[in-house]
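To the wet lab folks,

You asked to see what we're planning to order before we commit. Fair enough. Below is the target structure as tokens, and below that is the sequence we designed to fit it. If anything looks off to you, flag it before the synthesis order goes out.
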């Protein structure tokens, strides 16, 4: 999750002492003239994008974002950035499975100027109002369609629903130098492309970004080549909209190999981010530690892009880290610790994604606990000190922010959804022991790869794998207004 852990600073003594195109078709150049497909275009074979099939649900925390009426299977995004005019020009091709019959299609979208919209090759009427794109054409349940939206305009960000001091507005942000970067949790993808902007609808992606000579474009997914000044990225594992990223700037590139030869790419700004390069180079070490605990890294590539932010985000395959994250006297390795946290999210949150924002704790609790275990091991802290830190921190955060299983929409990703579920996982860990706990953790992420999960499925998994009933313990830790007393599960 966006970064993070400023509330750990309240509890610093412990840490001081011891969160496309058709695959067979060539990528299109977004700068080339656009032609409108004819209604007689041949039928599209949608089986190529079945790995992007999801079961969207209406999100109760942010009901204005996303919809359960459509399932986007694939986004093909061809965008061009012009720094002198601060103009983004895009062609978004969406392969969509309607979930039910409807008189129109609705997606989240910032009010860019629409330059043309087609559905299955036919020109259709469309409009953007109140950050919703409405396409006036009927659709039939489970009969996939291809929506093409051409647009241009100046990007604008959207407010972050949180009181955290280390976050900025959400979505595509223009830098004073004319570059771009984005972080968009719990929403904000709609600030640069039409999207079903909610976590339950994951999709495959092809992203092509054209920039001026001397500039670099970075996006999530696996690098798929550079043609002229067009940079291409492809995601063959499904991605939630909040986990997509885009950065444009004058970057330096470093490459490395992670465990089992996984290719890693680091992007930083020379003269601005140089002090962070040693942390970037620790990535193979961080990934090796995480693989030892949770099994193989779940994606074909990884990396980090440094942007002009005070936060960080676990964007899939290409972590977005803020260069303004500062170390403190109590946490002198905060940037590296936060980077490990974001890498942990590649397992917890990216490979296994929450069905709705009600279960943000399922991402952040696991990533935070992984971060705490790494800190404990690195600093050689005692088990008792970690127990004390988590229980004392839990008491402070529940009193201030409430229980983690009932998030306040106005306080997104504040400390209770990090530390409180980490304290719960610590209690489960203590009761089942190291061998069983890490076997559970590995099975949770490896056997449910590329799925969406929630509290009920987590409890069912935990009970089935242990042969013990942890229902009361989990519900107490997620719903209690005060730190639960010891609940021993027989």
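Sequence we intend to order:
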């Amino acid at each position: 999750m966006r970064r993070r852990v400023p509330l750990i600073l309240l509890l610093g003594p412990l840490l001081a002492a011891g969160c496309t195109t058709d695959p067979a078709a060539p990528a299109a150049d977004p700068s080339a003239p656009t032609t409108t497909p004819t209604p007689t275009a041949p039928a599209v074979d949608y089986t190529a994008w079945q790995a992007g099939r999801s079961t969207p649900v209406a999100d109760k925390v942010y009901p204005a974002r996303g919809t359960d009426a459509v399932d986007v299977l694939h986004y093909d995004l061809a965008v061009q950035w012009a720094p002198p005019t601060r103009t983004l020009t895009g062609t978004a091709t969406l392969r969509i499975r309607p979930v039910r019959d409807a008189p129109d299609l609705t997606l989240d979208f910032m009010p860019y100027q629409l330059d043309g919209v087609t559905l299955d090759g036919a020109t259709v009427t469309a409009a953007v109002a109140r950050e919703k794109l409405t396409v006036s054409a009927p659709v039939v349940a489970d009969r996939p369609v291809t929506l093409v939206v051409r647009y241009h305009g100046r990007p604008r960000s959207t407010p972050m629903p949180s009181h955290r001091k280390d976050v900025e507005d959400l979505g595509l942000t223009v830098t004073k130098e004319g570059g771009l970067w984005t972080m968009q949790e719990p929403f904000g993808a709609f600030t640069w492309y039409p999207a079903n902007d909610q976590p339950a609808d994951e999709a495959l992606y092809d992203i092509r970004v054209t920039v001026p000579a001397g500039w670099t474009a970075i996006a999530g997914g696996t690098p798929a080549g550079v043609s002229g000044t067009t940079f291409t990225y492809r995601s063959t594992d499904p991605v939630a909209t909040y986990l997509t990223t885009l950065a444009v700037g004058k970057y330096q590139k470093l490459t490395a190999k992670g465990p089992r030869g996984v290719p890693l790419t680091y992007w930083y700004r020379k003269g601005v981010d140089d002090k962070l390069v040693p942390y970037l180079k620790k990535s193979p070490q961080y990934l090796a530690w995480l693989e030892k605990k949770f099994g193989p890294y779940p994606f074909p590539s990884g990396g980090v892009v440094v942007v002009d932010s005070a936060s960080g985000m676990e964007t899939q395959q290409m972590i977005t880290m803020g260069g303004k994250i500062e170390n403190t006297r109590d946490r002198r390795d905060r940037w590296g610790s936060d980077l490990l946290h974001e890498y942990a999210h590649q397992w917890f949150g990216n490979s296994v994604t929450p069905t709705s924002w009600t279960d943000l704790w399922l991402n952040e609790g696991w990533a935070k606990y992984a971060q705490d275990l790494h800190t404990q091991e690195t600093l050689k802290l005692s088990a008792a000190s970690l127990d004390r830190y988590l229980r004392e921190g839990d008491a402070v955060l529940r009193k201030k922010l409430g229980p983690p299983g009932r998030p306040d929409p106005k306080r997104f990703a504040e400390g209770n959804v990090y530390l409180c579920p980490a304290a719960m996982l610590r209690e489960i860990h203590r009761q089942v022991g190291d061998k069983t706990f890490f076997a559970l953790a590995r099975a949770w992420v490896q056997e449910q790869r590329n799925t969406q999960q929630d509290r009920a499925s987590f409890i069912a998994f935990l009970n089935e794998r242990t042969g013990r009933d942890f229902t009361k313990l989990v519900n107490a830790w997620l719903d209690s207004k005060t730190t639960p007393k010891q609940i021993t599960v027989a």
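Structural context that might help your review: The two ends are 34 Å apart (CA to CA). Residues 6-17+351-479 form a domain with the Neutral Protease; domain 2 fold (CATH 1.10.390.10).

Thanks,
Computational group
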